[in-house]
Amino acid sequence: MEFKYPHLLWLGVVAGIMWALDYWKVFQRAQLYFPQGQSPFSWWKKTLRIVLFTAGALGWVYLSYSLMQPRKPQKYSPSNIEINDIVITIDVSRSMLAEDLKPNRLEVAKEKIREFTRLRPTDRISVVIFSEKVFTLLPLTTDPTLVDKVLSEISIGYLGSGTNIGDGLALSVARAVNSDTKNKVIILLTDGVANVGTLTPIQAAEEAKKYGIKVYTIGLGTDGDAKIPVGPGVFGTQYQLIPGGSIDYKTLKEISDLTGGKFYPAKSEEALKDILNDIQKLEKTEIKVNHQIVYDEQFYYYLLLGVAILFGVEVLRRLLLKDVA
Questions:
Q1: Helices marked H in 93-247 — which ranges?
Q2: Which of 49, 86, 133, 242 has a CA between 20 and 30 Å from the CA of residue 213?
Q3: pLDDT by residue (tens digit) across 230-251?
Q4: CA–CA gap between residue 97 and residue 90 (Å, rounded)
């Protein structure tokens, strides 16, 4: 036997105590009665009062028990769930502050990726970020609220300068490789060219291929020159100009081709949204779980029994003992 709300037992106990205090009129002022003939407190009425109290107490026991909602697990109902393990790997180098996309590349990426993850509540999501250094911001999780919160708080500046695509991808592979899920996917989003790191992007891609992990690559940014804010100046914010066409499309396409994924150039906010919608159609893996349990609910029986007993006690109390509530 299991109980759905065991803490509600105390509610029934308190209510039963209050009923008992009222039944014996503990807080009622003493009154003086002048006997007329036979005493109203004859032995049979005293006995009846005790019997009715015992029955009423039993009724409250049943009611208290029913409040906990007792139930018996009958069987486990298998449920098939389609899932992916998705590692979202995001470039957080300074160039992601470029304002060719509004308000900047990073904010656009965060917003569209958050929309993407909200549509995948059954998938396990991990977040890896990289610049000069690489960091796992979130291990694989099925908590959509946590994923959304982590993505919204991604910022730039604490992983150094540079674009370490190779090590960022390698860390993402390591995050996915220990999963039991058959379909493992990495979404790699960057706006630059690999210029630091222990592994080259292609070496990391070969590791992904070795473990059957598909890598979808996204090159984010327009073809024109873009401005990056570098700090306040005398006449307002100062900007650094970065040349257009600085994304290594060739390497990104080679990564996706090598791993069975797909390469996408994202030159606008709408393009990035369409790209993520396309990735949304990934093949899913179906797994069986036994978390759905079929219960035989028992509380109705105890509830009806308790109510019937208390109703009978209160009726007899008023008819035979002449008690007035």
A1: 105-118, 144-152, 165-177, 201-210
A2: 133
A3: 877 667 788 888 888 789 999 9
A4: 13
